[in-house]
Design a protein that fits this description.
Length: 116
């Protein structure tokens, strides 16, 4: 069995090509496009699109979390993350946050997120 290659073209122009992706419901006001993984076991990567300003409940990262803000802004305990910013939280990080309307992020998790 050969793994499929995943390629995201023009990622920093996602605001204009976001409809090229299939989006599923993630939580109120937030859509998800999973690249791999299911968020329940093992590593996962996904695009998250905030259609409206939505809080992110407190959670712990048992592995590394990589958040790349592609457009808009997101905020967590460490402050505002603007478009073009990559923030990496190490294992053991506990935080909450807010995704603002119009924000799209690439989220890569080494291990599943555990909401508190």
């Amino acid at each position: 069995m050969t793994a499929e290659t995943i390629e995201l073209n023009h990622l920093f122009r996602i605001i204009s090509n976001q409809n090229d992706y299939s989006w599923d419901y993630f939580r109120e006001g937030v859509d998800i496009h999973r690249l791999y993984g299911d968020g329940e076991a093992g590593p996962t990567a996904a695009l998250l699109r905030y259609r409206e300003t939505s809080p992110i409940p407190p959670h712990i990262h048992e592995g590394y979390e990589h958040i790349l803000v592609l457009c808009g802004t997101q905020e967590d305990n460490d402050g505002v993350i603007e478009a073009g910013t990559l923030r990496i939280h190490p294992p053991g990080t506990v935080h909450r946050g807010t995704g603002y309307a119009g924000c799209i992020v690439l989220a890569i998790y080494e291990k599943p997120v555990r909401f508190l």
